[in-house]
Amino acid sequence: MRIAFENLSFIVAEDDPFWRRLVVAWLEAFGARSVRDTADGARALALMNEAPADVVVTDWEMPGLDGIALTKALRDRKTSPDAFVPILMLTAYGERGRVMRAMRAGVSGYLVKPTTPQAFYERLLAVLADTRPFVATPHYFGPDRSRPQSFAGPPAPPPVPEE
Amino acid sequence: MRIIPAPRDKAAAKSRDGKTGSSAKSAAGKPSGTKPSPAKPAPPRETVPVPDRLRAKALAFDADYEEALAAAVSRAQAAEVRVRAQAGETLAEEAARCAGIVEGFDPAQAASRTRSLRAAHRLRGAALGLAVPVVARMAASLARLVERAGARTPVALVAAHADAIRAAVSPKAEPRAAEVVARELEVAVDAVLARLK
Asked: Positions of the region Disordered (chain B) (predicted)?
């Protein structure tokens, strides 16, 4: 099993030029079909509205719209082009309170910088293979936080149909 | 005749028996003055299945997981080497940018504090990515100072951070001296934050 990057499009929102280049380079090396990048959350939202991506990777601190505001905008079912889009937050903030805040905003996964290509790949896989349903309350729309992320290793391949 | 519903717990039972929640807590030796909050109805909650469309195209079962991971990581590591080779000037540029922003720091202005905090955070991220931990420490110390001290942030200590960051990325920088300066800045920030408590 692998991530079929050749089928996937990404938006990378990251204001730090080094990290933006690095994440784009990783995704392209993985074989991503399309990677669009931007330094701010508002532009990321505009890119999603132009053509929704399959996955959004976002930093927390960005000028204009930060990663939390971007996540909330993308999870808004009334206005978002895809409220289910997997959102991976990639940030230097590692404090528990920050992680909880990101989860409450609706991110699908969280990864602390600095990180490695392997950790990034594995976190992306966890996000893409996650089978948790979403929940909608008056103040939240996103992955069901009352359940653990369902992915705990590569899933078994689908059964081969008998002839 | 009023029908009193069966109590759902001991506190409710005591309350029904004439004791208030606070007196019940006092009797149990706990601080009084708090009233038990009435049970709030749970907010409406709808479970929404995620469309399978993405999972179907995102996962392929034509390769062994470990082999696919190793190949993808190997390509990404090669790409990372190229990015790092091109990033020689990046840290110096980021440091100069951060130092320039915090030079005009005005603690009374929320916008100035936000700009400085963001610049310090961005420099920290770049320094971590480029494996220059001493600059990351200085930037983290600056971010902590501005974030926690807010409008009472001492301008002189912010300026000291900016000078130290500039010095740490200069070609003549002495790594051990930079470590000492980073530690001094962290201690100074600790002292300021302790005074403000």
From this structure: 1-51
Q: Is residue B135 part of a domain?
A: yes
A58 in Cβ contact with A88 (< 8 Å): yes
Segment 67-126 of chain B within 8 Å of chain A by CB: 68-69, 72-73, 75-80, 82-83, 86-87, 90-91, 94, 118, 121-122, 124-126
- Token look-up 């990515």 returns B129
Residue B168's domain spans which residues?
90-196
Least confident of A8-12, B35-39, B63-67, B81-85: B35-39
Q: How confident is the model at residue A153 (pLDDT cuts 50, 70, 90)?
A: low
Residue B131 lies in a domain: yes
Quick check: ipTM above 0.90? no
- Give me the amino acid identity at B110: A
Domain count, chain B: 1
Domains (range + CATH), chain A: 5-143 (3.40.50.2300)
3-state secondary structure of A141: strand
Q: What is the CATH number of the domain that holds B172?
A: 1.20.120
